[in-house]
Every structure is written in structure tokens, then in C-alpha cells.
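BUG: 3D viewer hangs when loading the predicted structure for this chain

Environment: internal workstation, default settings.
Expected: structure renders.
Actual: progress bar stalls at 90%.

Input used:
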Amino acid sequence: MTAPEALAILAAGLAAGTINTVVGSGSLMTFPVLLAFGYPPVTANVSNNIGLVPGSISGSIGYREELRGQRARAIWLGRASLLGGATGAALLLALPPSWFAAIVPAFIAVALMLVVLQPRLSAALVRRQGEPHEHGGRLGLAGVFGAGVYGGYFGAAQGILLLAILGLTLDEDLQRINALKNVLAGLVNGIAAVIFVLVAHVAWAPAALIAVGSTAGGQVGARYGRRLPPAGLRALIVVVGLTAIVVLLTR
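C-alpha cells produced before the viewer hung:
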């Protein structure tokens, strides 16, 4: 690895940590960089996942104020994230990458529509079913598990999926939902990373560089992302999500 390549991976890790903390889709900064430097797709995906785990922890610490009072909820939904992440990681190692890559843009597009329509859809759910369940109910649990499977397999836009699911199933402020999203995404990446370390080939040098960059980026994202009003955060989610779709369709 040359010095310019190391700097590029470090910078991508910083950007990914920032974006993941505020919205999600940070993998679209780091994953293409690793591919460009010649790492095989699965190795790049595995190494990227491991490198982003410290960034998730850093971002969650940065959002600790918004996490207050959500411990029971995080434990309840976290179990679904762990199970989903382990399932997704196993699928990554067992199935051809092309199977999932073909539908990733569709997943992101659906998530964006859910985020945009979340206030109206949440109100409709309340009128039809009563007040949302404190922990998201069965719908929230199933959705978090599904997002975990996706995140363990690929990960890009996992945050957007979680924001859409949690926004629909929880009666909470968007910033508090974003804080919970960081915890759940971190659990998914963490359990997947454990599996990858044990059974997959890891490129440790780029993984370490991404880890350093994403840790710093987590703090940057928490510092500035927490100041965004709900409308501004929702707009940023849409911009990042649309960019993710374009990148995935053209790479």
C-alpha cells in the first residue's frame, strides 16, 4: 500500500464515519475506494465492515444525550439486530455477491420513500392501530431484523433503512431515532465483524485505517448532525440516499 492510497483510505474512513453517524451509507465512501485499489469485492466488504465498527461506537457515544431513556428499547431491538447481522454475514460468505447487489438500489429507494412519507405514515398507523408500541412492536422487531440481515450482508444504506423502520414504528423525535439507529447499526456491524474475523479473509491494513478515520468521523457527525432540525435531517437522508442509488447503479 502506497502513502497516497493510505491517505485516501483514511480520508474515506473519516467521511464514512461522519455520514454513518448522521444518516447512513458511509460504506459508499469506503467500499468503492477499496475496490479501486484492487481489493476483491468480498474482501473489501469484509474489511470495510470491520473498519466501521469503531465509528459506530464513536457515533453512539456522541449521541449519548439522545440515547437517555432508550436502554430497554435498545436491548429489545438489539437482539433482532444481532440475529439479523449474523444471518447477513453468513449469507455474504455463502452466496454469490451478484444476488444481492442487483436489488440493493431498490432497497434504498424504498427506504427513502418511507423516510419522506414517515410523518404521514406514522399518523395513519396511529389512527388505525392506536399509539405506537414503546419498543416498536412486532413490526419494528421484524423490520430491524430485516435491516440487520441487509447490513450484515452489504451494509450501505443500512442506516437509512433503520431510520425508515424506526420512524414508522416508534413515536419519537427523529434525532432520538437517529441515536438508536447508531446503536443498532453498530451491533449489526459488530456481530458481522466477529464472524468475518473468524472465517473470512481480512485486509487488516485498510481495515485499521478505516477504523481510525471512522472513529474521528463519528465524533464529527455527532457534533454537527445533532444540531439539524427534523426537516433538515430528513432532507439530508434523501440526498445521501439518492447519491447512494446513483453510485451503486453506475459502479
